[in-house]
Design a protein that fits this description.
Length: 180
Amino acid sequence: MKSSALSLFSLISVSVLLHHAAPSIASLEETCKQLAKENNNVDYNFCLTSLQAFDGSPSASPKELAVIAVKLTQANATAALAKIERLLNGSTLDPTARFSINYCLGLYTETKVALSNVIEGLTSGKDKSFLVMQIDTAASKPQNCDDLLYEGANDYLMKPEDDDCSDLATIAHDLIVKFF
């Protein structure tokens, strides 16, 4: 509960900062179009609707959009961890699914650490290679969870969360690579 409140506070803080930000050179729509054009793994509609959900994003610069994308990925990973906890506390999982979900707990924990490193790196001016390495970790761990669950015919358990987390991290990755 404490981490959820902290995540919400972080999202609100960024929202307030972005609300007072200067108008951006490229619009949110143009930025998502550019990302989708340059990377087949970025869906324009997902990019646009995900980032639009954050107050202040229409006037955010691409660098600010990168921070938003990382924060949204953090919120997604937090929600995924909560779902994993609910699944582990339930008694309906077979042993293979329980093992896989327990492994996913570790993967999403690593994802959250990597995302915290990205936020810290963005605010402290870490070099781009550090940021890219950390966001790549955040993008790959949910897919590792999805792959493991798929192998055990249990991918339905976390598929939307795994996909959304990886997709948001991919958007953040591309924004960091392009604009930092």
